Amino acid sequence: MRFQRRPALCLFLSLLLAGFTLKTLAEDSAESPPLPVTTTDPAIPSEELALLLIPLTKSELMVEADAWQGVVQTKAEEIARAEIAVKRQNREIEKAREIQEQAEQAKQKLEVAGEKAAAAEVSGDPQRMAQAGEAAKEAQVILEETADTVDEAVEASERTAEMQTGSPNGADTKLAATGAAT
Questions:
Q1: Are the beta carbons of 152 and 95 closer than 8 angstroms?
Q2: Coil/strand/helix, residue 140
Q3: Are 99 and 149 in contact (CB under 8 A)?
Q4: How far apart are CA 143 and CA 135, in angstroms?
């Protein structure tokens, strides 16, 4: 009977209670967004995935789609990194072949220079001594080119190693972060 005497107070309390209930429901939904349920096994057969998606609501399907997009993006990044690493390794192999050819050429030039120096020393001919000096200079140029090529190959190898690990110190933070999300 008391409540009948004060209808305004009852209305106010009802609205206040309803407001708190709506606010609490809104906070609960804002605090915990729905989590994807189908991305736990990325190798799931498409038929099974289709069955799991049937009972989901539109908002739940959006969550699933976003999660699968993240899985695909992570895999695409891994594939891109692997392809780049293969291309870099192929270039490194080509550099190694170039180094091998230059080293062989330098070896031949040094042998020629040694033979000419020995012949010049035996004969005492100044012209032969000059030829031996020229042959030695040619061999030195090839050796310097080989050293430059070796330096380039080492730098390329270091860049490839950084690419494969994700950073110079060996910690792959980007892939670790994206891998943790799936």
A1: yes
A2: helix
A3: yes
A4: 12
| CA separation for the pair 145, 103 (Å, rounded) | 9
Residue 139: Cβ-neighbour burial (10 angstroms; 0-12, 13-18, 19+): buried
**Residue 174, amino acid:** K
Rounded Cα distance between 165 and 145, Å, is 30
Alpha carbons 149 and 102: distance in angstroms, whole number: 9
* Claim: this prediction has a pTM higher than 0.85: no
- Quick: pLDDT tens for 61-104: 999 999 999 999 999 999 999 999 899 999 989 988 888 888 88
Residue 163 CB coordination number (10 Å): 14
Letter string b/e over residues 89-127, b meaning 16 or more CB atoms within 10 A of that residue's CB: eebbeebeebbeebeebbeebbebbeebbeebeeeeeee
Phi, psi (rounded to 5 degrees) for 54:
-55, -50
